[in-house]
Every structure is written in C-alpha cells, then in structure tokens.
Amino acid sequence: MNERTIADVLTEAQPYMKKYTGKTVVVKYGGNAMVDERLKDAVMEDIILLNMLGIRTVLVHGGGPEINRLLERLGLESRFVGGLRYTDEATMEVVQMVLAGKINKDLVARLCARNGRAIGLCGVDAGMIQCRRHTEQDLGMVGDIVRVEPFPIVQALESGMIPVVATIGADSAGHTYNINADTAAAAIAIAMGACKLVSLTDIPGLLMDRNDESTLIHEVKISSVPKLVAAGVISGGMLPKIACCVDSIAKGVQEAVIIDGRKPHAILLEMFSDQGNGTLFY
Questions:
Q1: What is the average pLDDT across 217-239?
Q2: Collapsed DSSP state (helix, strand, coil) of residue 248
C-alpha cells in the first residue's frame, strides 16, 4: 500500500473513529468466521483495534458448528425448529461445555495472545442473562430472556477489558438454558445502550434474491421489514436474525447491521469505511 493510499484510508476512517470512540458496540460472532482460522485471526484483530481506539466492544459468541461436531461424536442428533436449536437435557450439557468452556476460553486466549485484555463471561455469571423456558413451541431447554443485568460487562469495560460472552442463561431456580446468540446479543446491546449491533453471518447480508449475492439490500428501514417478510425476501434462518435487529432498533440501539463474516476484517470495513459491509437496519 503506497503512502497516498494509506492517507486516503485513514482520512476516510477518521470521522467514523470520532463517531464510535467512547461508545458501546456489541459484536455477535458466529458462522464461518468461527471456523476458518484466517477469519478467526482477522476478527480478533478487529476487536482488539476497536478496543485500542477507545470503543467499548462486547463480543457475544455462538458456537453452532462446534456444538454440532461434538454432538455427532457423541452420537446425538442436531435438530432445529424454526431456525432455533432443539435442546434436550443431553444437548444442553454439550452446549454448556462447548460455549461456556471450550469456545469462550479459546476466544479469550486468542485475544490475550494478541495483547488484548479479554475476560470470559457467561450469561449465568452474576445473574447476567435471566431467562425462562421458551413456551411458544417445544424447543426443549431453550430460554427466553426476561432481563439482562449488564453489571459484569460494565465492570469489564470500565477496567479496559474486552468482555467475551457465552450465551447461556439461567432461571430463578438455577436451571440453565440455551439462548440464541442473535437474541442474546440484541438484548445485551439494548441493556447496554449500545450505539451499534454488528452480527457476522455467512452471507453478504439481506438479499432480494437469496440465490444472487449481487442483489444485496444495503439499507432497510425497520418499518419495511413486514413487507419483506410477506414477500418472502426475509425467511428461514434470517427471520430470527432480522427480528433481533428490529427489536434492538425499536428499543434504542442506533444501528444494527448484518455483515458478511466471510470477508477478512469485515467489522472494520463496516465501521470505518464509506462503503460499509452488509445490510444496515435503521
């Protein structure tokens, strides 16, 4: 990269740095970016840079692929209902081990290895994610969030650390539940008064034609979402993701964006460039 190009990049990024510095950004980390080693490294580097720039960054992670692999090794079936994982008692044990154990600590270790100060948290810690069993349909031990108490996250941020949150919650009786990572990230963003919710996915964003990536819709006003659902543009696994974006905007988060996590440094491209990356909901 020549000097002029470097200057152009920094000049373009400067107003965005000013916009986000001192603000809270919640990043939901999932999909292929959690599997591909090159993409993992890029995400960790992005998160550390945000933190270095004074952006209060919360990393909320899922772990579907690793959960699926361990279930398969144990001879247990992965089953989904309406885009959400059916979680029986045996699956819940695996979910808790993989999310709060292996993945959470691996991410913390990766961040710390790059001189980031990270701390692993779980929704059960200090009653952070309080939930009840989902009752609208039978999903097993899947929880609906009742309340988010963000105190542990706030304490970590005020200490200059990067909170890494595994999405498991508990009810008042101490029973643990699997929480959809998109749902948890949106609820945390709302509770934290975040300025932005960023969700990494395995597609460019919302597509007008799901089979044609060139039909990316760059911006969506949340009042337009019901029409897009009725037209079938929003369907399947995108329904819960976009519902979380809409809910977060309706409850005070300024921006919510679904970005293409298959691109290296997708977070930086979205936050610090004029072109952005993915579909922005406003």
A1: 91
A2: helix
